[in-house]
Amino acid sequence: MSGVMVLVEHRRGEIREITWEMLAKAQELSSSLGVEVQAVLIGRGLSGMAQELRPFCHRVLVAEEEGLEAFNSEPYQQVLGRLIEERRPVLLMIGHTAQGMDLAPSLAAALDLPLATDCYEFGLKDGRLWAHRQMYGGKLSAEVSSEAPTKVVTVRTGSFDPEGLREVGGEVEEIKVRLDPFPWKRFLEYVEAPPGEVDITQAEVIVSVGRGIGGPENLGLAEELARALGGVLACSRPVADKKWLPKDRQVGTSGKTVKPKLYIALGISGAFQHIVGMKQSGLILAINKDPKAPIFQVAHYGIVGDLFQVVPALVAKVRERKGG
Amino acid sequence: MDVVVCLKRVPEVAEVDLQVDPTGKRVKTEGLPFVLNDWDSYALEEAVRIKERSGAKVTVVTVGGEEDEEVLRRALALGADQAIRISDPRLQDPDAFAIARVLAQLIKDLPHDLILVGVQAADDGYAQVGPTLAELLGIPHATLVTSLELEGGRARVRRELEAGLEEVLEVELPALFSIQSGINEPRYVSILGIRRVAKKEIKVLGLEALGLEPEGVRPKVLLERLFSPPVGEGAEIITGGVEEVAERVAEIFERGGVI
Ligand SMILES: Cc1cc2nc3c(=O)[nH]c(=O)nc-3n(C[C@H](O)[C@H](O)[C@H](O)COP(=O)(O)OP(=O)(O)OC[C@H]3O[C@@H](n4cnc5c(N)ncnc54)[C@H](O)[C@@H]3O)c2cc1C
Fold first, then answer.
1. Nearest residue on chain B to A274, judged by CA atoms?
2. Running DSSP on this structure, what letter comes out for residue A312?
3. Of chain B's two ends, which shows fewer C-beta atoms within 10 Å, N or C?
């Protein structure tokens, strides 16, 4: 039976959240199309994870492979290539994550399959894939499509809610793939980020600066606001990339996830990778020149204006209230 | 050592009210400022540093129109040795695969030990051209690279995973790496520097010269339409003069118990 395939993402023995999100979407497609949900689990020491997945899939396809303690796109590509050729799924879902970004494009090219990356919504209509993805830093969305019999999508994290997962009680099927050697790329080790001087995840108030701050010489302004509110400074990625602030202050997918009582975004456009790290804050205020900046979609309050004018006024008012 | 860097010129949209053109599939680009894709500037800087350290030869490539030569000139000013532009009217609305396909066709005949690309382009954000290109050339790749060291015939790279975690890989050359922002600090190029390379030849190649049939670059994924992203509840926008706005916000902070 044909199916919707989901590549299970796991690291250090744990299934990652994106997997459950994709399974939730796969279940939805499976009921409307009448096809199986098939989870593909590749690696070493997989039996526990296979049992964890089994209730939520019709089939867990397990490929235990020698030397695959950590993810490596080359053997993954071989296993998936073999499975796709044998089983012809209508759709293969892979996370748009560090793993998926490394794997999906080369896999699709090797098998001559269409690939739509970073999709936040998609479906199949009469066999045709339609998918929605963001462009231009989240300012526009695009609908893309493909009519090929098998399509690949990479799925944006947080797009589907795993709360709705149902038990469909499937089976575990061991698959044996004779891998060609994969000597070109070797995993050596993981490296953790060094702990920073300030732990922004513990702060109740965060004043976060983006590229709109213009340069390190302007950080003092944001610092003053942070001080007036008893908070700490954080930043978007470009600010850390340019070393205006240390990397441990970065909020987002490749930085920290924070949930302060108050998050103030100064000159941050609100790219998806940033929003992921701060959208659960209690109160979000965004100050941005651009009324169309996506940050205003997640903020509770917004000021459309020049931060260099607004922030000093705000510092004064906050001090006034505190003093008074 | 031969290094090839793939570059893209993109509109800078952070402060722009983007409009969709009448086709519904493209944005109106008139009047938009264009820049070298941010991620590519890191890839280019990395290549130039390798050249400075080891005397590598650097070739830069873009797929695009004449106006896109601007990013090639910039690269030449930084020290790239050779620039090539691929251009063909039949490459009108290419998808990521089509771009990778033409790049592969060109690069397979260029000496290449190392191919560097940016992680993604800031406009369409596919993050797809690099690893697709590697596959079409039959060479290994690693994406999201945050550090790159060459030793003998191989590279030791760090890849960025999530939440600050990284992994270290060893990859045999020739290989392709997609470079993540922050790997280095791209240097500035002066107008004078760019003027100095204004006369340098940029080779322009079309599909015929590359020996490609138009069918070979047909997109696999079609872009049907652009639209405004779904909106959430959205922020309550506080309007008024600066003083007034600041006063309202301070009030909100106080009510919210943060002051
Ligand atoms: C794999 C990957 C991981 C990533 N991880 C992260 C991450 O963890 N965290 C992260 O933040 N990003 C991350 N990014 C980058 C992300 O995609 C965006 O590029 C980035 O968040 C943009 O930062 P920004 O909003 O500061 O800059 P821009 O998008 O350039 O926005 C600057 C904003 O400042 C405004 N502005 C300018 N001047 C002023 C002024 N005077 N007053 C008021 N407003 C002004 C502009 O209108 C604009 O909206 C990642 C990207 C990739 C591909």
1. B163
2. H
3. N
Cα(B18) to centroid(ligand 1), Å:
17
| A3-174 and A200-321 in the same fold | yes
Digit-by-digit pLDDT tens for chain B (259 residues) are: 999 999 999 999 988 899 999 999 999 999 999 999 999 999 999 999 999 999 999 999 999 999 999 999 999 999 999 999 999 999 888 999 999 999 999 999 999 999 999 999 999 999 999 999 999 999 999 999 999 999 989 999 999 999 999 999 999 999 999 999 999 999 999 999 999 999 999 999 999 999 999 988 999 999 999 999 877 778 999 999 999 999 999 999 999 888 8
Residues 144-163 of B with CB under 8 A from A: 144, 156, 158-163
Measured CA to CA, the distance from residue B78 to residue B42 in angstroms comes to 12
pLDDT tier at A323, thresholds 50, 70, 90: confident
Name B72's Cβ contacts closer than 8 Å, sequence gap at least 6: B7, B60, B62, B80, B83, B84, B85, B202
Domain ranges of chain B: 2-217
pLDDT band of A4, cuts 50, 70, 90: very high
Residues A106 and B166: their CA atoms lie apart, in Å, by 21
- With beta carbons less than 8 A apart as the criterion, state whether A130 and B6 touch: no
* Partner A contacted by B23 (CB < 8 A): no
Structure tokens given for A162: 């795993």
- Identify the residue whose C-alpha is closest to ligand 1 atom 27: A211
Give the tokens for residue A17.
């959240």
Asked if residue A1 has pLDDT above 70, the reply is no
pLDDT of residue B92: 81
The residues spanned by each domain of chain A are 3-174, 200-321
Q: Would you identify the CATH topology of the domain A200-321?
A: Rossmann fold (3.40.50)
pLDDT digits (tens, 9 = 90+) for A258-296: 999 999 999 999 999 999 999 999 999 999 999 999 999
Look at A302 and B181 and tell me if their CB atoms are within 8 Å: no
What does the alpha-carbon distance between residue A238 and residue A247 come to, in Å, rounded to a whole number?
A: 10
Whether the CB-CB separation of A118 and A156 falls below 8 Å is answered with: yes
CATH entry 3.40.50.620 includes domain B2-217: yes
Structure tokens at A201: 């995840």
In CATH, what number does A3-174 get? 3.40.50.620
Q: What residues of chain B lie within 8 A of the CB of A188, using their CB? A: 156, 167-170
Quote ipTM for the complex. 0.95
DSSP lists the bridge partners of residue B58 as B3
CB contact at 8 A, B223 and A282: no
DSSP string covering A141-188: EEEEEE-SSSEEEEE-TTSS-GGG------EEEE----PPP--SEEEE
**Interatomic CA distance for residues A49 and A92, integer angstroms:** 20
Q: From CA B203, how far away is CA A249, in angstroms rounded?
A: 44
SS3 A116: strand
CA of A253 to the centre of ligand 1 (A): 13
Interface test with A, best of B13, B171, B253 (most A CBs within 10 A): B253
